From TrEMBL:
Superkingdom of the organism of origin: Eukaryota
Polar residues: compositionally biased ranges: 15-30
Originating species: Lobosporangium transversale
Upper taxonomic lineage: Eukaryota, Fungi, Fungi incertae sedis, Mucoromycota, Mortierellomycotina
Biased composition annotated in UniProt, kind: Basic and acidic residues: 1-10
Chain positions covered by the region annotation Disordered: 1-38
Record's protein name: Uncharacterized protein
Length: 180
């Protein structure tokens, strides 16, 4: 059972604040098969993801924290699930494009966690179950990318840095402080 989906706090029905859960698309096994992309399609797909990462930064600036993590999770899942089709695993093709993509994705995660407590409203707050859910997702994405050597290197998911950011959020926000 997904702890995020059980969050029964009040929800706003406005389109900007309907991100009360953090979710990822269906597993790769449930997705329809898509043919391999040609170079221009790969470039276009990566450009679209980078544009959506820009939206994540805007959500953060607007205090839409849960929305930002929902979008960031969806984009990361899309990249991990389709890393071969997006040509993120091979040494061929433009390396600067791959480096730019991974750097943007990882920095977006780190920036989002550095602003996790700046929610504009209660329904956009990141709660402890959200952080645990994100932690588990990051571990799963890293496990998937490990076979390609795309973990904790310039090209790939910065698993260690992202997990440390999640742990800092958990410690700083949800740690029980002893009473004197």
């Amino acid at each position: 059972m997904d702890p995020i989906a059980d969050d029964s706090r009040s929800r706003s029905s406005s389109p900007e604040s309907d991100a009360t859960t953090i979710s990822c698309p269906n597993s790769p096994n449930n997705r329809p098969h898509r043919p391999a992309l040609d170079d221009s399609e790969v470039t276009e797909e990566l450009t679209l993801i980078l544009e959506e990462l820009q939206n994540v930064l805007e959500y953060i600036d607007q205090g839409m924290i849960l929305q930002s993590f929902n979008t960031l999770s969806r984009l990361t899942d899309m990249a991990v699930t389709n890393c071969e089709k997006l040509d993120l695993v091979s040494d061929k093709g433009p390396m600067n494009q791959k480096t730019r993509f991974w750097t943007a994705l990882n920095n977006c995660w780190l920036f989002a966690f550095s602003h996790y407590n700046n929610a504009r409203s209660e329904d956009q707050c990141l709660r402890e179950p959200h952080l645990h859910y994100l932690y588990d997702n990051v571990k799963a994405w890293a496990d998937t990318l490990e076979k390609y050597g795309l973990v904790n290197y310039e090209l790939g998911l910065w698993e260690q840095d992202i997990l440390e950011a999640i742990e800092c959020c958990l410690i700083n926000t949800f740690a029980v402080t002893p009473t004197p």
